[in-house]
Structure formats: structure tokens, C-alpha cells
Amino acid sequence: MKQLNKRISLTLKQLRREKGWSLDMAAEKTGVSKAMLGQIEREESSPTIATLWKIASGFDTSFSSFIENIDISSHQMKHGGKTRQLHPADEKIRVKTLFPFDAQLNSEIFIIELLPLCEHLSPPHQNGVIEHVIVAEGKMEVLANGKWQSLNKGDGLRFNANQEHGYRNRTNKIAVIHDIIHY
Ligand code: MN
């Protein structure tokens, strides 16, 4: 968790430097409070997945750039195969970057585990962002275009992610999805 906070802090500071944005400007662009952004930069606080998405969208950058070293040129990601909890408040959702953001493909791929009774809502991403959710294990539901849609193992759904959307697992077994984000 400490290492993750450090990576998020460094990425945020670097982005702010590149854009020449004050904390006030960054707060305005991301919709995340100035106090929270300051805490994240000082590594005093870690953002939830939803907050991190607001920051990524506000800076018009990818989600994975905050949690992975994007300079890795390897096309094979392993991390010992482990998904991880990014924030204590995100109790029932585990994330692993399978492929970090690729500037040529304009995409990144995550493996997401939804624990039983997980319901995770996401703020809208940038305009033009498209998500593909493919169920690798179990059953789950995706909120897109205002309605929850059930997906079984092997099913997929593609939707515009510039709207509130969500993922939930109403079963008592873990559900695993692949989430392909296209920017
Ligand atoms: Mn999303």
C-alpha cells in the first residue's frame, strides 16, 4: 500500500507540473477537493478507485499510469498473478493491471475480482472512453446506459464509459472480469 501511495503521489505531482496546474486548478478539473489532492501528494491518504478515476479523467490520462510503472517495455505482465485491494474502502473489489496503458493502442487491460455482494460504481470517464467487460469466472452485472445487465462466464459487454457505470456481484461466489479500457 505504501509503495502504491508513493507511485500515485509521484504521478500526480508530475502531471500537475507538466500541466502547470495549481492544486486549486487540479481540484477544479478533477472534482476532487484540494485538501484531498494535497493529502495524496504528501502520501498521507490514498485515493479510492472512484477518486483515482476522477483524477485520471481530469488530467486526461489513463488509470493504469497511477498504479503501474508505465515505462515497462515488456509485453508480458505477471506480478505473481495477484490482484490487490487498492484502498481500504474498496473492500470487495481487487484489481490487477494485465497490460498497462499503451499509447499506440490507446488501451489498457485490467483483471478485476468482484467478491460476493460487491457493488462498485464508477464516475464517468473522459468522453470517448469505451470499456469492454468480459466475464472470465462466475456471474456478474454491469450498469451501463442506466440499467444493470447480467453477464455469465464468457459473456462480454461494450459500453461508453463517459457516464456513471458500475459492476456488481450478487452471488456468493467470486466473479472475475477482464476490463479493457479504450481511450
Ligand atoms: Mn470504468
Description:
The strands form two sheets. A five-stranded antiparallel sheet has the order 1-2-9-4-7. A four-stranded antiparallel sheet has the order 3-8-5-6. The two termini are 27 Å apart. 31% of the residues are buried. It has five helices and nine strands. The mean pLDDT is 93. The chain folds into two domains: 2-67, lambda repressor-like DNA-binding domains (434 Repressor (Amino-terminal Domain), Orthogonal Bundle), CATH 1.10.260; 88-182, Jelly Rolls. The longest helix is centred in the first third of the chain and has 18 residues, at 2-19. It has helices at residues 2-19, 23-30, 34-41, 49-58, 64-67; strands spanning 93-102, 107-114, 119-122, 130-137, 140-144, 147-151, 156-160, 165-168, 175-182. With 183 residues, it is an alpha+beta fold. Bound molecules: manganese (II) ion. The site of manganese (II) ion has 5 residues, from loops.
How is the topology of this model organized?
Layout: H1 2-19, H2 23-30, H3 34-41, H4 49-58, H5 64-67, E1 93-102, E2 107-114, E3 119-122, E4 130-137, E5 140-144, E6 147-151, E7 156-160, E8 165-168, E9 175-182
Antiparallel strand pairs: 1-2, 2-9, 3-8, 4-7, 4-9, 5-6, 5-8
The protein binds manganese (II) ion (MN).
